[in-house]
Amino acid sequence: MFTVCFLEELINSRLILLMLGNIQRDLVKWIHxxxxxxxxxxxxxxxxxxxxxxxxxxxRLMGISYHTVNRRIExxxxxDLLRLLFPMRxxxxxxxxxSPKIYVxxxxxxxxxxxxxxxxxxxxxxxxxxxxxGFMIEQIVSREQAKNSGSLxxxxxxxxxxxxxxxxxxxxxxxxxxxxxxxxxEPGDWTCLKSALKEELVKRxxxxxPGNRAFFAARDLIAVPALGFLDQYNxxxxxxxxxxxxxxxxxxxxxxxxxxxxx
Length: 263
Fold this sequence. Notes:
Elements: H1 4-11, H2 14-31, H3 35-47, H4 55-62, H5 66-78, E1 82-85, E2 101-104, H6 107-114, H7 119-124, H8 128-147, E3 152-156, E4 164-169, E5 174-179, H9 191-198, E6 204-209, E7 215-218, E8 221-225, H10 226-231, H11 233-236, H12 243-250, H13 256-259
Parallel strand pairs: 5-6, 6-8
Antiparallel strand pairs: 1-2, 3-4, 4-5, 7-8
Helix pairs in contact: 2-3, 4-5
């Protein structure tokens, strides 16, 4: 899945370069941009991949008004190039973020826009964790929509501290997921998710990371290697399965042979 070979294949794909050229031409046609401005728009948005959307800041970087930024983003969302992930709505009174996060949906196009030409450059990029999050979010959303077309997707977090990267809302229950771009986890990595479980904002939580061991961090809070999570997604996110059922599902992923994900 998210392997060095996979990423190198994406980076070197001529098809991706062709797709990027088509997107730039479509921007020129849709919102009357010249090619230079279309390229600038895409590259600035790529550098803000995974961040909370701030159209005023983006407008200053592009030299345009925030109204124009909104129009360009709307066109790219409608073209399925960008995803706006909105925050979860909770009871009033909490100081939570109200703006969406912005993601470039196609990881290969994102890497091209960022100028990442090799796996080494990816590993050294300051955006490597955001790239990992965006890739996993798209993989999970596609699996969930194939299974439950009515599911909603959001994130949860305040102005400071960690966020729950993705919440899958099936109306009857919610699943929270955080992504960590590290091979070894520590208790501080899942404090926000543990609090959400305690407050019953989510029914079950997952910490998805490119490590090599699945384990329970707490009841209903499970750390799972990225490959194992995607392979067993439908079972792991089944609300009706018990903790013991999940333990059995994850048993094969407790050996290095099955669950190492190379980043």
